[in-house]
User: Which sequence fits this backbone?
DNA sequence: CTTGACATCCGAAACGTTTTGGATTATACT
DNA sequence: AGTATAATCCAAAACGTTTCGGATGTCAAG
């Protein structure tokens, strides 16, 4: 009877290295290395022999050693700025998908770490970037005064930012025009007849918080409605945060007839809060979001939102980063995309004036 | 006037290493290394001096070098078996979130790569695992005869599988009881009065495809309805695939009164297909899924499904893997979880008999 | 004065690769 | 024959770290 689980006690018993092949073929380590790398200064005969022996022995280059020597890792890093221990935010998922696939296309690996913003946020960056584990880093969800940008600029590691920061330095970024986005979205609700439009903003250290808020404000002022700060509350970008913020807004008298959230996740939270109060989203109170995450489409009712091409942005920043790493020139160092209004049922019907 | 963008021409000009500190303090590289590592055989005075100088110079250990020497990377790997170039499947996102957060908790990094199943799938595994870039690997979406499991067992790298395979070997895994799951779900629809229940199965090389299918079959046979293979089609687990499969099922005469899909994404596709045909999901045709992805909750109508705790599974397999890497004993080497029936509106009302 | 114990330090090897700068031999050209 | 040229090969250094096996000096005990 065959005993099937005599687990290998020897972990990775004897790993085959260049030296193994050298000894097997009688050539030097140098020649083996150069043969496998395809240099022209090794005879065709020997190259063949070496390649065959390597294959036969199941040789796999030790990437760590190669990285150490070449000072190059073929890896891009991404440190998710996550507060709670979960990063299953659909926004990040989508972004991650774009980044990951683009990296794979360029035969780069992706190293992911998480680190909450805060005093020791830079620790993670120092460990990954300063430790030379990656050739470049992606920075997402840029903040007003972003220490990560400062740090990376200081140590001179290639990086690309999703979002913008209020710094004097120049750095490559991709961003979506949030000011315009919220202007368009707010106008949409105004056009439907709404006059009391609540807004759930984002934490003020995030750059996009200001931009989106001022788009909202401009739309109101241009329409002669005027900005009322009582209609603005701040949420933490989560679904739960959106629900809480909505409760505050709904406690106003008279209550807003429409609520816009700075991102879709909070808007979904708004819809939950409405339901809990016995109100029907899109009928009793109109709801709008920002992002265009997949969930927005399948919510009930489907959510009116400003779509930003998150997946494509992920691809793009990754591609830009890889170009930078390779020392190529970036045709566009600063990309500002336009979000697109997607009208769905959460907007509700025009209301009588 | 200050010119703000004199970009650093020197990439990572002169990196400070142990040697730098050694020269600065007058001690040897050995002592510096041991001082920073907190060994007891270095005097308190010198340790302090060295630590201070290191801090002042902004020393960051080169992780690659450390990895090479220690033969340990503190990294777990995950290779996503993705066909299309996108992995924004909510199932993977959720799983990834669980894995990533658990890894972060244990101060491990996560290396992600993508590779479509197929003849050169193992290439990616050889590169990552054979190249000693990670201390262990996670295998997700196990297949009947899974070459990945065979390979990793062969080279003796620690790994944990999500799902099961039909192999003789013993290996650590976490899985969800799909047979039971589909039995419960099918019974649920039968209980509502359905007699013609279509089933959209998964690609047959995936182990769970068989298990879920046989759960469906057993429920039908136990209820005296009998298994009709014309009611079973195979989908590719995507939304689009689900929609196509649904079209085939709806072309039957008489058409099924309920359709169950092997995963939520396809079930969402079924609902789309129904709508396109002018049928109302949950009313004209009942729909059921499997997974419990967030989208299922916000679909309209919300989707009846067998929930599996994807996020927690991600955490768990990651934790098991890290235990294995550290040579710890696994209390449970084989974990089989029970999925939970979540009844939502896509089930529809009981139908008259 | 010798011995042993202890505290503190360090040289050198090792991890597996790539690259530099020749060395050796054969071939072709004056 | 002598010399340039090309074709092959390789020893050694380098990447930055950790660790092995002492080395050195001090001090207390015998």
Assistant:
């Amino acid at each position: 009877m065959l005993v099937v689980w005599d687990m290998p006690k020897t972990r990775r018993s004897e790993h085959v290295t260049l030296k193994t092949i050298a000894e097997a073929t009688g050539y030097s380590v140098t020649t083996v290395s150069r043969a496998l790398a395809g240099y022209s200064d090794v005879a065709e005969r020997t190259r063949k022999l070496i390649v065959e022996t390597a294959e036969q022995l199941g040789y796999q280059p030790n990437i760590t050693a190669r990285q150490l020597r070449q000072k190059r890792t073929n890896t891009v890093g991404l440190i998710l700025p996550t507060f709670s221990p979960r990063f299953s935010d659909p926004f990040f998922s989508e972004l991650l998908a774009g980044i990951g696939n683009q990296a794979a296309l360029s035969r780069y690996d992706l190293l992911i770490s998480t680190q909450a913003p805060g005093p020791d946020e830079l620790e993670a960056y120092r460990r990954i970037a300063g430790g030379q584990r990656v050739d470049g880093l992606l920075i997402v969800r840029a903040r007003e005064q972003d220490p990560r940008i400062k740090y990376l600029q200081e140590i001179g590691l290639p990086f690309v930012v999703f979002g913008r920061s209020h710094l004097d330095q120049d750095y490559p970024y991709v961003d979506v025009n949030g000011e315009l986005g919220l202007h368009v979205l707010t106008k949409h609700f105004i056009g439907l007849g709404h006059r009391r439009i609540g807004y759930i903003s984002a934490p003020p250290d995030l750059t996009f918080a200001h931009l989106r808020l001022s788009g909202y404000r401009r739309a109101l002022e241009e329409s002669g409605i005027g900005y009322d700060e009582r209609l603005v509350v701040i949420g933490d970008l989560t679904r739960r945060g959106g629900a809480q913020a909505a409760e505050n807004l709904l406690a106003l008298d008279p209550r807003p007839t429409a609520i816009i959230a700075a991102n879709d996740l909070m808007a979904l939270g708004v819809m939950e809060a409405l339901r809990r109060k016995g109100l029907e989203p899109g009928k009793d109170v109109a709801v709008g979001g920002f992002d265009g995450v997949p969930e927005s489409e399948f919510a009930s009712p489907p959510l009116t939102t400003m779509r930003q091409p998150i997946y494509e942005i992920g691809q793009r920043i990754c591609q830009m980063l890889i170009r930078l790493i390779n020392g190529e020139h970036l045709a566009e160092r600063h990309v500002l995309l336009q979000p697109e209004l997607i009208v769905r049922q959460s907007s509700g019907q025009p209301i009588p004036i």
About this structure: Residues 27-31, 34, 40-43, 46, 65, 67-71, 132 of chain B lie near DNA strand C (CB under 10 Å from a C1'). The radius of gyration of chain B is 27 Å.
